[in-house]
Specification:
Layout (H helix, E strand, L loop, with lengths): L1 H24 L8 E11 L2 E11 L2 H22 L1 E10 L4 H4 L11 E4 L9 E6 L3 H14 L7 E4 L4
Antiparallel strand pairs: 1-2, 1-3, 2-5, 4-5, 4-6
Amino acid sequence: MKKILLLIVIAVAAKFGWEAHKKKENPVVIENPVYGETRVKLGVAGREIEGVMFVKNANDAECRSTIGKFDGIIDKSSCEKVNCKIVSSECKPELTARNARLFDNEPTHVSYVSLARTRPELREMRFIVWGVSVAESDDLCKRIISGNALQIAKPTCIHAAR
């Protein structure tokens, strides 16, 4: 009987420890973010464009895990259908001023996709494509949102400044 109680106590303690661990990794507010930045070159209609995915992570380990997953997804799916190449994937404690403004949902000279953090286990993301016109970026943004394969987050188009 004592052994069963001890096992129950250990199980309950382990559950609370795991919950505390999860809350630590999924804070409500990310105070010292580490940004993942993955850049992809795409050959489309005889020209080269650059897509960039930014992710606001809770820490460096999480960032490295996130960009590793993106690299695998991009290589296996997207690059089979179009001529693309991952140019860089890195984690950094801060973004350039130009890219940091994306997380304030400020307009740029092209439209981009903003994914809000709707639950603690999710992360804010931004996806922007350079080398396209405003009309092309608007169209791309609308297609991503209407397709919304990412149904776990709420995507928004941040339209270009006009």
